[in-house]
Amino acid sequence: MRLDVDIRKKAFESASGKRHEVLSDVSFSLAAGEVAVLVGPSGCGKSTLLRILAGLDHDFEGTVERPLQARLGMVFQEPRLLPWRTVDDNVRLAAPLADEEALAKLFDVLELAAHRSHFPGELSLGLARRVALARAFAVDPDFLILDEPFASLDKALAARLREQIATLVANRSAMTLLVTHELDDAVRLGDRLFFLSARPARILRVVPIATPRAARSEAEIATIKADLALLNLAAD
Length: 236
Ligand SMILES: Nc1ncnc2c1ncn2[C@@H]1O[C@H](COP(=O)(O)OP(=O)(O)O)[C@@H](O)[C@H]1O
Ligand SMILES: [Mg+2]
Fold this sequence. Notes:
Layout: E1 2-13, E2 19-31, E3 35-39, H1 46-53, E4 61-65, E5 72-75, H2 87-94, H3 100-109, H4 125-138, E6 143-147, H5 155-170, E7 175-179, H6 183-189, E8 192-196, E9 203-208, H7 218-231
Helix pairs in contact: 2-4, 3-4, 4-5, 6-7
């Protein structure tokens, strides 16, 4: 399983008919089991890139190759749950083939077991995010896309969610693409970090992290973060 991305250009047309470029020469590959993290300023084109990679937008110049049979799990920036369906139904509808045991385990890891019969309107943002994550993981994805899963959560909640995602990712060999603003999340979760420029987004720098994710010490994480801060690449 492998993703090959070679996007030469992506542009949007505004209502006045003016075209503005959003992506420019974004090329990289991703292998099974690898976690790539995209870090870039707000509005640079990250979500646009993820939508193209998910196959939701075909209007661009270049190529994206991924195996046709790859199962996709996607978490959008907003949880996008069906409001008239329970948590349980939201997940089951997306993954009709998931077995009971796998679902129970997933709800367990994400600490959602007590919320399965709740409706999205009854959930906090943090809970709704976790349901969106459960929905993405329930399909047992080969290709996982997470668009800012920690945004607007307080630090403690974000850290907890990061641990849960790390656990779920470690138990699979999916190709994973994660967008985050936090260097800390990037360094803890990623195998390769892609720093993007302001719009039109291009790759400014790729930073591989050699130590396996689970083996990174706090000291090493701090050192990598300090090195990256010196490069002054991190987004807003
Ligand atoms: N459907 C669209 N039509 C026109 N412009 C869009 C559309 N989607 C996004 N854009 C524009 O493309 C740029 C990148 O947006 P986005 O990919 O959402 O950025 P990011 O996720 O990095 O914050 C922004 O300037 C945004 O206004
Ligand atoms: Mg976005």
